[in-house]
Design a protein that fits this description.
The protein is α+β, with helices and mostly antiparallel strands. The protein has 15 helices and 11 strands. The strands form 4 sheets. The chain has a 4-stranded mixed β-sheet with strand order 1-7-4-2. Strands 3-11-8 form a 3-stranded antiparallel β-sheet. 45% of the residues are buried.
């Protein structure tokens, strides 16, 4: 993977390395590592763009940028985000009309996060199909390791189109909602760091693709998991206070992000192995979350479990949008199951999973409603 990688599966190793200062999240070059040396120079400008993402900074620079982004996210309270999610969820379910059978991915779990994030970004919700398409091309770069130059070219073209769209959106700041992500990033904050227009737009590109994949995949896999463990759905029906723990368990049981990429920031030895600077190190949280040394009966869904997980990362680079993912997942699932209590996964068709290595989620899930 990525021209050669260190892959770690145990919970102890994944947790330790995600917190290690010997690894760096400055992995803007990760998508081109497996390309022939002769092809990499073509993408130097694209790599420079990726390096503007806050997630790929380290040290004091990362702290300044992250603090500024967290200011913006504090405005997006659970009530604000929850209201947007609920409206989008109700809208999608209303469109089903009197249909008794549908593809839950195509008709709910895929469009819902795109509708929500597009609106929270400050863009017209009607544009969510286009933004979703651009974000998908970028997600492919970090969700699969078998990349060729054409994949990178496609993602670069989508990033350029996305940036042009956001620049146009930002030309009329008065039009942007105060509680929008783009508007917040462009407003003056109190953290001591201000994003330029280009930097603010770049953070929105990052947040769009990074926010779409976890949300859409965990919602779909949770519905399938509840079908496989029907007694857990009964527990949630009888005791709604279990929902916060249930969402954490869905994230542990079938995490949408299977591994979290890092690069070695220096040469170091780990468990007797010499890891060289620049090599890819991939803690597989999907495996770590099923480690029997950490979780009793790890292959069983238990919405009362309180053991935590690594699905949102660890340490200073933990997922900045984790709270938004949790709110969106909770409301999307509760709205769906409350409005369609008879929803069941169809037994006559098989769920179809995507083929990504990094992002694990459903491409199709037929349900009866």
């Amino acid at each position: 993977m990525y021209g050669g990688s260190w892959i770690l599966f145990a919970h102890e190793d994944a947790s330790a390395l995600l917190r290690s200062d010997k690894l760096t999240n400055n992995r803007a070059t990760l998508p081109i590592l497996a390309l022939p040396e002769s092809e990499r120079a073509e993408f130097s400008g694209f790599v420079d763009f990726l390096k503007t993402w806050t997630a790929f900074h380290e040290g004091a620079e990362h702290t300044l940028r992250r603090n500024r982004m967290e200011e913006v996210f504090r405005v997006l309270t659970p009530a604000v985000v929850g209201g947007v999610v609920r409206e989008a969820a109700d809208d999608l379910i209303d469109r089903w009309g009197d249909r008794s059978r549908l593809d839950l991915v195509a008709d709910y779990t895929r469009p819902l996060p795109a509708m929500v994030l597009t609106r929270l970004m400050g863009a017209p919700e009607s544009d969510h199909h286009q933004l979703d398409e651009w974000a998908d091309d970028l997600a492919y770069l970090f969700g699969t390791s078998d990349l060729v130059a054409d994949d990178v070219r496609k993602a670069q073209k989508s990033a350029e189109a996305f940036m042009a769209y956001l620049h146009e959106l930002a030309t009329d700041l008065a039009r942007l909602p105060k509680s929008s992500i783009l508007g917040g990033l462009l407003a003056r904050g109190g953290s001591g760091f201000e994003f330029s227009l280009a930097q603010a737009c770049a953070q929105c590109v990052l947040l769009m693709f990074a926010g779409l994949e976890p949300s859409r995949h965990v919602i779909g896999s949770a519905v399938l998991a509840l079908e496989q463990f029907p007694e857990q759905r009964t527990l949630l029906d009888e005791n709604p206070r279990l929902w916060p723990a249930a969402v954490e368990e869905f994230l542990r049981f079938d995490p949408p992000v299977q591994y979290i990429g890092r690069l070695a920031g220096k040469d170091f030895t780990y468990r007797g192995h010499e890891i060289r600077k620049g090599q890819a190190v991939l803690p597989f949280v999907g495996s770590a979350n099923r480690d029997p040394r950490q979780y009793p009966d790890p292959d069983v869904l238990d919405v009362r479990r309180r053991a935590g997980h690594l699905s949102m990362g660890e340490g200073v680079h933990r997922c900045i949008g984790a709270a938004m993912v949790r709110v969106q997942t909770t409301i999307a699932l509760r709205t769906l199951l409350n409005r369609k209590p008879q929803l069941r996964v169809c037994a006559d068709t098989q769920p179809v999973w995507n083929s990504y290595v990094g992002f694990h989620g459903l491409k199709s899930l037929m349900v009866s409603v």
